[in-house]
Amino acid sequence: MLENLKVSLYGFDMDFKNLTAKKTQLDGHRPLSPALVKNLEQWFLVELTYTSNAIEGNTLTRKETAVVVEKGLTVSGKSLVEHLEATNHADALRHVMELAQCRTADLTESALLDIHGTILRGIDDNNAGHYRSIPVRISGSRVVLPNPRKVPDLMEAFMREITTNQTLHPVALAAEAHYQLVTIHPFSDGNGRTARLLMNLILFQHGYPPALIRTRDRLRYIDSLETAQLGGSKDNFYAIVQEAVERSLDIYLKAVSGESAEEEPAEDQSRYLRIGQLAKLTGETTPTLRYWTKEELLEVAAVTASQYQLYAPEMVERVRLIRQLQEQRLTIREIRVRIAEK
């Protein structure tokens, strides 16, 4: 683990010229007006909270997340845990923005534990802000995680590596910190959220906007991590982070030019399919489609106000592909990989 950390940290060879150029362009507009900064920070507060929680299975929509985070209101039909996940992530992100005033070299384990403690506050207070003391597994994954007895030493070495590294491009360092943290998996829960917050903290500290992992990229993102953790290439994971940072740079550059901070216009839900419609078009049963959705083979494009899951028309071909791959006797994991490669 520690040897791999050192090799990967110093062996990063992706091209970040485009990101550096866009950041230089953005720096030319600094200092940004306080009103613009506030508007962008509030937009990213909701967007990062929504996407990070959605990746982990939280069912609050983007609008519902905004209501909970900005208004402090509750959403009918949603659990207390889902509300806490939203408010906790927003609080943790605000703390990260404060920590961004310090250097990465000054980052401590205590600060990282505080971030995790905020993520699980009121949800799992016994484990909030503490390293795990039990073995854990990632559901549906073949990845073997470190023994809990090794976690303190691994985390000490990990923090030493990321705080002393002077070689990597900031985006590379942020991506590697994310990868190594979820691979050590130091907590019983909340590893993904904490890793994404750490990644964005490092980006903030170096003057970059956050890496915004879109919900539509969830399957690709998860599979890229698992592929690397099983000994494969990290290229897909690094590419996802690079794309995410570039999207955020584009949002900032549009904003300083007077355009909306919104990443892209809202999609027209009228073109989406309900699960019954998808079943009819593909000849599959709704229980089968629900199972494939649960196993992350099918992607939910949107959720209606009545909590009906909607699928993009492209999922018709996805269903047919899944059936073809099953006929080849591929496992769920293997099918996920094939889909992510498409």
Descriptive overview:
There is one protein chain. The protein has 342 residues and is mainly α. It has two domains: 2-256, Fido-like domain (Fic-like fold); 269-341, Multidrug-efflux Transporter Regulator, Chain: A, Domain 2. It contains 15 helices and three strands. The protein has a three-stranded antiparallel sheet with strand order 1-3-2. Helix 8 packs antiparallel against helix 9 (191-205). The chain starts with a helix and ends with a helix. The relative contact order is 0.11. Residues 1-12 and 263-267 have low confidence and may be disordered.
Tag the structure with descriptive keywords.
15 helices, mainly alpha, 2 domains, three-stranded antiparallel beta sheet, 3 strands, Multidrug-efflux Transporter Regulator, Chain: A, Domain 2, single chain, 342 residues, globular, 59% helix, disordered N terminus, Fic-like fold, 2% strand
